[in-house]
Design a protein that fits this description.
The complex is a heterodimer of chains A (435) and B (288). By secondary structure, chain A is an alpha/beta fold. Helix content of chain A is 45%, strand content 15%. The longest helix of chain A has 17 residues. Chain A is globular, with a radius of gyration of 25 Å. Chain B has a single domain, classed as MetI-like (MetI-like fold, Orthogonal Bundle). In chain B, strands 1-2 form a two-stranded antiparallel sheet. Chain B starts with a helix and ends in a 5-residue tail after the last helix. At the A-B interface, helix 4, helix 5 and helix 19 of A face helix 7 of B.
Chain lengths: 435, 288
């Protein structure tokens, strides 16, 4: 029976049809569709994809008039596309932005202030419940809340428990960079003059995703700072020279890192780590599950606190992650903010933790009985590390290629024989030009 | 009634419209952006030639220009030479030649990105074929991709590996267009191999050679994938081409003003290089 036959049905009173239409029309108009750009795909099966699917389903069940339409994007151009879409008035209602590109989001001023829409309504007990209160402050500029954290990530030092055991090293004893170099040397394997396994996996190419040990060592000596007032970089100084020399010495003096590190990206070294060609590597903690899944020795994966020059204090955990922003151009800001609040709030966070495998950003979620199990120990340890030494680079400063500048400086020192301070001045000038 | 030149021009409009939409409009827009401060994809104040002066006074960009010139010319020379050799060697239409032509074409039909990634792992001294050869023959081969001296050679090798097939096809088309009767007549007149090649084949092949060289030179001067994937511009900026610098300044530093200034300078570099090639061929009578 089609619509025409209903309208022309002799027994159907037309007045009733008109009445039904009048009642249904406002309902149809009330149905809202929110578009969200994310790198995740709810139709896929990875833990985070499944978590997002469940979050959307739960939200839609609670908000029958709202539908979330996910438009899947490539992660490393997501932030740029979100900002550029505003210039052509085609931005989605909600966009995900990675921490490295927060400067782009904040400085381009394309995000709606989530303060009046979400965070200003929080109770003091909810604020107290935050695992990383600094993250929320980090996303503020001129009192405006540009985004909210969905999942936090940090750059960690992965190691293999089995290799440490074989070499007779207690991971807790690796506190300084000298300790680290000595441990890496013990785990290194050489056969017929060829290194079969390097002790330290460095990625020192000029690829944007690289992050050198030197940057961590430098931040540790400067109380987590790489930028001074007005985003002036703090690289070319005595601390910088010490950090750079330490990093260079892992290749030229201790010979625990491959000379080919200058050509390696993060992905290259993580692949070698999985293949057993490297004993330790720095990476985002988000890859933990991936390494466990892919490596034959996966269950032996551990996270080592960053070494430092100061025995008493570990190196900083440089924080990043994925953040949700509501577009300034959105015509459905209230509804978009409601979804962001749900996705980044305790209910959403529960799903990000299980099945998503992420550290929950609310203490109350961690305290739930289902998360007492030992398989969540890794997340608990990570949260402790963050609490001890979390560091956020200023969101308004463009640090997207500062680590690359430090890598270039290391290349100049090792390959070009340039003095460290001169190479760091060039790095500082390059970072400065981007502000 | 014969149609006048005005009527003939009408047929040009579709092509001109396409050219205007996809070449001239982006070019004009690029010039416009290059005269402005464009940060975070937002058009700012007019700075006139400020971006150009800034870029041209920067040692990193000047290094990129040098690297681009070195890479383009080296890659052009070796790729053309290899393509030329292959075209002559595989010119006959036997089954073996057809098979070998197909084999030679494989790198050209593989996506550039995949090809460069493949070579990256091939050249790796830690995990690639070189590493295996090192271990098997107990050799100490240098780290190709992490040594400024060898990284450029690796980049040129990538170009030769992929684009020789293109040169081969273009030159083979030129060879096939030479009437066999001319070569047969020369042989009957007693011309040897060298005389036939030098006096008949080479002069008739010059238009195909020019087109191949121009196409290859423009490709090498503007290619992004090879340096981006294979060497990342390193080590120590040894393979940091202008195309790669434009990409990084525009899409990683979000400075589209300076990136467009670089793009216009690269465009001028392209025009100059093509004009030089044309002049060289004109001197030898290949073009009118």
């Amino acid at each position: 029976m089609n619509i025409r036959s209903i309208i022309h049905a002799p027994r159907m009173p037309k007045a009733a049809l008109l009445l039904a239409g009048c009642t249904l029309l406002p309902l149809a108009a009330a149905a809202q569709e929110l578009t969200m750009w994310t790198f995740l795909n709810p139709a896929a099966t990875s833990p985070r994809d499944v978590a997002l699917k469940q979050i959307i389903e739960k939200f839609e069940a609670k908000n029958p008039g709202v539908k979330i339409k996910v438009e899947n994007q490539v992660w490393f151009t997501l932030a740029e596309k979100f900002v550029m879409a505003h210039r052509s008035r085609s931005a989605p209602d909600i966009g995900w932005v990675n921490g490295e590109n927060m400067g782009l989001l904040v400085n381009s001023n394309v995000a709606e202030d989530l303060g009046p829409l979400i965070t200003n309504k929080w109770t003091p007990s909810m604020r107290k419940d935050l695992v990383l209160p600094q993250a929320y402050e980090w996303l503020k500029k001129d009192g405006k809340q540009h985004a909210l954290p969905i999942m936090a990530l940090s750059l960690v030092l992965f190691y293999r428990r089995d290799l440490f055991r074989e070499a007779g090293i207690d991971p807790a004893s690796v506190k300084t960079w000298d300790d680290y170099a000595a441990a890496a040397a013990k785990m290194q394997v050489t056969k017929n003059g060829q290194v079969e396994r390097w002790g330290a996996g460095l990625h020192l190419s000029t690829d944007k995703t690289t992050m050198s040990f030197g940057a961590n060592a430098l931040m540790a000596m400067q109380n987590g700072q790489l930028f001074g007032p007005a985003c002036k970089p703090m690289l070319a100084n005595a601390n910088g020279v010490k950090a750079l020399e330490m990093q260079a010495d892992l290749i030229r003096k201790h010979k625990v890192a491959s000379p080919e590190s200058f050509a390696y990206t993060l992905d290259d070294v993580v692949d070698q780590f999985i293949a057993g060609k490297v004993a330790t590597v720095s990476s985002g903690n988000g890859r933990f599950g991936n390494v466990v899944q892919k490596a034959t020795w996966g269950k032996e994966l551990g996270i080592l606190p960053w070494p430092s020059f100061d025995k008493a204090k570990p190196g900083p955990q440089l924080m990043s992650g994925w953040f949700a922003a509501v577009s300034k151009d959105s015509k459905q800001k209230e509804a978009a903010a409601r979804f962001v609040a749900f996705m980044t709030g305790p209910e959403g966070m529960e799903l990000w933790t299980e099945p998503g495998g992420q550290v929950p950003l609310f203490h109350s979620v961690f305290e739930k009985p289902q998360f007492k199990d030992s398989r969540y120990d890794y997340l608990r340890d990570l949260a402790k590390l963050w609490a001890q030494s979390e560091v956020w680079l200023p969101a308004e400063c463009n640090a997207s290629r500062t680590f690359v500048d430090l890598n270039t400086a290391t290349q100049r020192v090792v390959l070009g024989g340039e003095p460290a301070l001169k190479a760091l001045r060039e790095a500082e000038a390059a970072t400065s030009a981007r502000q | 009634m014969t149609a006048g030149p005005r009527h003939a021009y009408k047929y040009l409009w579709p092509a001109l419209a396409l050219e205007a939409a996809f070449v001239f409009a982006p070019l004009l827009l690029s010039i416009y952006y290059s005269l402005h401060k464009v940060r975070y994809f937002e058009l700012g104040a007019m700075v006139w030639f400020g971006n150009y002066l800034d870029v041209l006074s920067h040692p990193v960009f000047l290094n990129s220009l040098q690297v681009t010139a070195l890479f383009s010319l080296s890659a052009l020379f070796f790729t053309f030479l290899t393509g030329f050799g292959l075209a002559f060697f595989l010119n006959r239409d036997g089954p073996m030649s057809v098979l070998l032509r197909t084999v030679v074409l494989i790198p050209y039909v593989i996506a550039m990105l995949v090809g460069s990634m493949l070579l990256k792992w091939l050249f790796s001294a830690d995990a690639g074929l070189i590493a295996m050869a090192n271990a098997y023959f107990s050799l100490t081969v240098p780290t190709i991709l992490a040594d400024p001296k060898y990284a450029m050679a690796a980049l040129v090798a990538n170009a030769i590996w992929r684009d020789s097939a293109f040169a081969m096809i273009m030159l083979m088309a030129g060879l096939k267009s030479i009437p066999p009767s001319l070569i047969a007549a020369a042989r009957i007149d007693g011309a040897g191999w060298w005389m036939t090649f030098h006096r008949i084949i080479l002069p008739l092949l010059k238009p195909a050679m020019l087109i191949t060289m121009v196409r290859l030179l423009l490709h090498f001067a503007n290619v992004l994938t090879f340096p981006l994937i294979l060497t990342g511009g390193g080590p120590n900026n040894a393979t940091d081409t202008v195309a790669l610098r434009i990409f990084r300044v525009g899409f990683e530093d979000y400075d589209l003003g300076r990136a467009n200034a670089m793009a216009i300078l690269l465009c001028i570099f392209n025009v100059c290089a093509v004009m030089l090639l044309l002049a060289a061929f004109r001197k030898r009578g290949a073009v009118a």
